[in-house]
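Exercise 4. Each item below gives a protein and its sequence. For each, produce the structure-token representation.

Item: 1-hydroxy-2-methyl-2-butenyl 4-diphosphate reductase (Streptomyces venezuelae).
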Amino acid sequence: MSAAGGDRAREPGPLLVACALRIEQAALRSACRGPAGGHVLLRTGMGPRAAERAVGRALDRPGTDLAAVLATGFCAGLVPGMHPGDLVVAEETRDPRATVACTGSTLLAEALARAAPGRTVHTGALTGSDHVVRGQERAQLRATGAIAVDMESAATLWTATRGGDRPVAAVRVIVDAPEHELVRIGTVRGGISAFRVLRAVLPAFHEWHRSLLLPRR
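Answer:
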């Protein structure tokens, strides 16, 4: 089964930015200037089931039924050489139910590089899990071609696209990687670095959303 966030003939609705954790929400809120910052920020709670429920409810509300959806927060990198604070832009998200193609991944990666100069931006497949992945299981996921793993992005995008086509994207900040595994977010340098990067990249999300208004060739 495959769902795609392809082009839309009509203008997209508002931007729904979905994250799971309070620390992710805090980073994104601290990046806002003035009122909501031109987006709706949704904290889903942790795990794919929580993400599915929260996003489904949000998209049923008047005014957000046509929203573009961007999943964000922290993730685990799967590729040797990745570092905490690196960014991952999904070209697609994967879980056992579906592979969902993301909209405008190249443009989004370019916008992120401008928003967070000096940070490496990786693009590729972002896979989903219903639990924290460590050790050998990460190597097994890497063997499938995925470059990073988190618990909510795939469920968020699957829920967003199951009722019809809409623009979707996923951006994650690496908190740990094969050579930089951490135990608790926020207590080590990797977690602090990821928080700062997530706080810096919100303007790139808005740039991606504005690009959806441009004519497509």
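Check: The two ends are 27 Å apart (CA to CA).
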